[in-house]
Amino acid sequence: xxxxxxxxxxxxxxxxxxxxxxxxxxxxxxxxxxxxxxxxxxxxxxxxxxxxxxxxxxxxxxxxxxxxxxxxxxxxxxxxxxxxxxxxxxxxxxxxxxxxxxxxxxxxxxxxxxxxxxxxxxxxxxxxxxxxxxxxxxxxxxxxxxxxxxxxxxxxxxxxxxxxxxxxxxxxxxxxxxxxxxxxxxxxxxxxxxxxxxxxxxxxxxxxxxxxxxxxxxxxxxxxxx
Length: 226
Known about the structure:
By secondary structure, this protein is of the alpha+beta class.
């Protein structure tokens, strides 16, 4: 147990080019899969469920009928509003998880890395270079950042306008396309499902492609041979 707390999912934390246990990585992806599932349910509720709230105590008969002979009732009807404070904090936590994974020292701050390392301790480790996973997590952090902007467009617009001292972005409407949130959630859900269930790292494959194109100069010999 002490070795797990000391090494986490690393083969040897002191290596110049660290290797991590891919089994633990897949377990962690399965744990974090909860986040895009939760956000997907939130966006489904916002987009497809009933947006009007009727105060039943305010319903009363007007003693009038419409052209079809149906009774007309009067009621107080309110339009639902949405507060994304909780979702924003969830996204900040997801961003925190992506960023602390990038380095050996900061990895010790991640609860999910510790949990996944403990769960993987009874299985034979499969070590892969941290560099390719790091590239995948940078992609994940970028997608999460877009989601944060989507859920907080007015705040982001206010900051941008204050920095440039000009109204570049509207503060009374979302300047991102309305389907941005759904698209980002589906992408994150798909990438994490592929990692957790199939062991297929899309970000790693993009890294390999960039190496082949000569854009990135940090090849993964183990990954290339698979």
